[in-house]
Design brief:
Radius of gyration: 59 Å
CATH superfamily of the domain at 192-344: OmpA-like domain
Helix content: 25-40%
Oligomer: single chain
Strand content: 5-15%
Largest sheet: 5 strands, mixed
Structural class: alpha+beta
Shape: elongated
Number of helices: 6
Strand order of the largest sheet: 1-2-5-3-4
CATH topology of the domain at 192-344: 60s Ribosomal Protein L30, Chain: A
Number of strands: 5
Length: 362
């Protein structure tokens, strides 16, 4: 109470102290919820038992107590049924719902034809003894004779198969030989025609050039077994090379250039050879016609290369001296002094060999 107040009012101060409430307990609620849940499950179980058939109940029982066919003891041991179904007195593995193992009837096999290898029975060959009592059964000639004496129906099947295979191989080889011969003939025909065209082109190129028209008679172009041979020969008073030397004159150089223009368009390989007459070499020293002919052949090779011929096409460069005379009856004739350029024939094609026939082991 305040003293000296104007109105004399009384002021009251009230303090409330809050404390913790006492625990009222809720365990009964949990117990009640469990009881209600159990009752619902029980009534649901009763309804299911009443609403399902015998087969359905047996299936449910087998689901919760699986059948162990290989086991010796009962399965599903536990409450409430202890491994028994609700409607059977026997155990789950012994009632009608369990899986049974029993021997069934044998399967019926359909009739299937099976090819069996029939063993070949060879007709015995009569044994013959020689003068000293030796057995001649192992003699191949006697075995072949004995097989030849067999009737056609009793021939050895292995021998028949071998003879048939040999006949087939002979026919195949004959056909392959005919095919190879046809290929070679066609190849030779085309090569001859190609060489003939090249020879005509060389003759025409020389004849059309006024500077070389006079040398046409000193150039020989012909087909030989080795291929197409082009020879540049000397004439009396008109040599291609300096006498006793390997340097060609201007006309020989120009002629070789015309020849190179034609043979550059052909694929064949080339052989170059030098020749001399039978006159002994007069250069003195150790030089001979062999050296002179080889030097002239090598000079010809070099001039062809300068005219555009690929070096890889040169197969050989040889000097033959006087061993291969163009005019054998006149060994010292000027025509024997020459160089030859030969376009070598290509090897004929052949058919690829067939793979060997696969034979069946006896």
């Amino acid at each position: 109470m305040a003293k000296g107040g104007k109105n004399g009012a009384t002021i009251v101060i009230k303090r409330i102290e809050e404390g913790e409430h006492g625990h009222h307990g809720g365990a009964w609620k949990v117990a009640y919820a469990d009881f209600v849940t159990a009752m619902m499950a029980f009534f649901l179980l009763m309804w299911l038992l009443n609403a399902t058939t015998e087969e359905q109940r047996r299936g449910l029982a087998d689901y919760f107590a699986p059948t162990n066919v290989m086991g010796q003891n009962q399965t599903g041991a536990g409450q409430p049924f202890g491994g028994r179904t609700p409607n059977e007195s026997a155990q789950v593995t012994q009632n009608a719902g369990a899986i049974r193992l029993q021997r069934g009837p044998l399967p019926v096999l359909e009739d299937v034809e099976v090819e069996e290898d029939v063993p070949t029975v060879a007709r015995p060959v009569p044994k013959r003894e020689g003068p000293e009592g030796d057995d001649d059964e192992a003699d191949p000639r006697r075995v072949r004779q004995a097989r030849a004496d067999l009737p056609p129906g009793d021939a050895d099947p292995r021998e028949q198969a071998r003879q048939a295979q040999l006949a087939a191989e002979a026919q195949e080889a004959e056909a392959r030989a005919l095919s190879d011969a046809a290929l070679r003939a066609e190849h030779e025909r085309r090569e001859r025609a190609e060489f003939e065209r090249a020879a005509e082109e060389i003759r025409a190129a020389v004849a059309m050039d006024p500077a070389l028209a006079e040398l046409a008679k000193q150039m020989l172009v012909e087909q030989v077994p080795e291929g197409l041979r082009i020879q540049l020969v000397d004439a009396e008073g008109q040599p291609m090379f300096a006498l006793g030397g390997s340097a060609p004159n201007d006309r020989a150089r120009l002629l070789l250039a015309r020849v190179a223009q034609v043979i550059n368009r052909l694929p064949q390989q080339i052989a170059v050879a030098g020749h001399t007459d039978a006159t002994p070499f007069r250069g003195g020293g150790e030089r001979s016609n062999w050296d002179l002919s080889a030097e002239r052949a090598n000079t010809t090779r070099r001039l062809l290369a300068e005219a555009g011929l690929v070096e890889g096409r040169i197969r050989s460069v040889t000097g033959n001296a006087e061993r291969d005379l163009l005019v054998p009856e006149t060994p010292n004739a000027a025509a024997n002094r020459r160089v030859s350029i030969t376009l070598l024939r290509d090897p004929p094609p052949t058919t690829p060999p067939n793979p060997p026939a696969r034979t069946t082991a006896p």
